[in-house]
Design brief:
CATH class: Alpha Beta
Order of helices and strands: HEEHEHEHEEEEEEEEEHEE
CATH topology: Purple Acid Phosphatase, chain A, domain 2
CATH architecture: 4-Layer Sandwich
Strand order of the largest sheet: 6-7-8-12-11-14-15
CATH superfamily: Metallo-dependent phosphatases
Shape: globular
Helix content: 10-25%
Structural class: alpha/beta
Oligomer: single chain
Number of domains: 1
Mean pLDDT: 92
Number of helices: 5
Largest sheet: 7 strands, mixed
Distance between the termini: 41 Å
Length: 218
């Protein structure tokens, strides 16, 4: 998988800590649970993308891994991935799939696992939890793998998107092998946004798709 795919599924922010590369939901070790019988080596190409970008800080918005537990195989994959990016400062905002992830990250002094992260009045979190009682201007989260359906060449196709609700920006999963969820269903999985009336969708290249009505009543 070429790095330009990751470019459109991540953000680069200028911060007081330098250039921050932000992405969500890698779900490392996803192959078996999703019915694939071959290794994609996704985590290897993701590490290569990070090295190309050479950021000052990496912020991963949760769900580093796919299985809820920690098998030996997934532990091996995580160790290999984190070893590849060992020269970078990494913050992981713990997601609902990240049980026992500290068993791996405790070996890496450059990795910090937190429930949420604040930098320059920006809040970073996974999105499955209640909103922390802190002040912030903008928030970035993942969790719901946002996607919308678009007509392309006469066919309806589901495409990943960035989805903004007020001052909250929801990032798509950076894993190119995992499809997104329709935002109208996904939004219900974010406790502090589930009753939002609408939001705005953008493609990874910045193309504005438009306003999407949420919680539509029959």
């Amino acid at each position: 998988m070429q790095s330009f795919s990751y470019e459109k599924l991540s953000l680069e922010l200028k911060t007081s800590s330098g250039r921050a590369l932000v992405f969500a939901d890698p779900h490392i070790g996803f192959e078996l649970s999703r019915g694939l019988r071959v290794r994609t080596r996704f985590e290897k190409s993701l590490a290569e993308f990070i090295e190309e970008k050479n950021p000052d800080l990496i912020i991963i918005l949760g769900d580093m891994k796919e299985p809820l537990g920690m098998s030996r195989f997934v532990k091996k994959l995580l160790i290999e991935f984190l070893s590849e990016i060992g020269e970078y400062s990494v913050v992981i905002t713990k997601g609902n799939h990240d049980g026992k992830i500290e068993e791996v990250t405790k070996e890496f002094k450059n990795v910090n696992v937190v429930s949420y992260f604040i930098l320059d009045n920006m809040l970073f979190l996974h999105g499955h939890q209640t909103l922390p009682e802190i002040e912030f201007k903008r928030a970035f989260l993942g969790h719901i793998h946002p996607a919308v359906s678009l007509k392309i060449g006469g066919n309806l196709k589901k495409v990943k998107c960035f989805f903004r609700v007020r001052n909250f920006l929801i990032l798509p999963t950076i894993n190119p092998y995992i499809e997104g969820f329709d935002v109208r269903e996904g939004i219900k999985m974010i406790p502090f946004l589930k009753y939002s009336p609408s939001g705005e969708a953008f493609l990874g290249d910045g193309t504005y798709i438009g306003e999407i009505e949420l919680n539509r009543k029959a």
